[in-house]
Amino acid sequence: MGQKTIAFSDLSHELILDDDQLARLVVQEHPALANGPVQIEALASEVKTIEDDRLNVVVVDLYLPGQDEPERVYLDVKLFDALASDGDMANVLASAAALKRTRRGSVSSRPAGERVNYASSEHAGAPHRGRTTEEEKEYVRDHFDEVNERLRAQGHRIIDLRDAELVERYGLEVLARERSA
After folding, report:
1. Phi, psi of 7, rounded to the nearest 5 degrees
2. What pLDDT does residue 2 have?
3. For the chain, which residues make up each domain, given as ranges?
4. 132 with 169: CB under 8 angstroms?
5. Residue 168: C-alpha distances to residues 43, 124, 127 (Å)
6. Long-range Cβ contacts of 61-66 (<8 Å, 24+ apart)
7. Residue 118 has pLDDT above 60, yes or no
């Protein structure tokens, strides 16, 4: 006995009868997207206009004074190009300092070899992609209120003891139990 998989469009809920009509979209970023990328299946005819409607954008990481982490900003190319006072953004980009690519393929604005110490008083508890070291966990546990005050002042998310993921990340189970009692 064989099995047949039936596909439906996630957008219109229409039946997709032919595999040649099945399109996949991987949504990388969206304001309503909470837990990372998702995949949507749809009829190719439903998503064909995406190519026609694409925007010409510039993606920049904006480092403002007093912020440890950048804010990712998406701008229309014409708006970005208008930032160049002489109107020649191509020349500005050509003369700008190139950033070195890291081993993971991302770029770094820090000099080679300079790393942020997330176990330090100025960085402990700040959002980052790397592994949370035992030293950082210890600092956050020992200076919890002080760390949250600094995070709030810097515009970062605070470490909420009701957030199971953050409690586990920083080893705050005991503190969470004590404060909830």
Report:
1. -110, 145
2. 80
3. 7-53, 57-108, 134-180
4. yes
5. 41, 15, 14
6. 61/109, 63/109, 66/154
7. yes
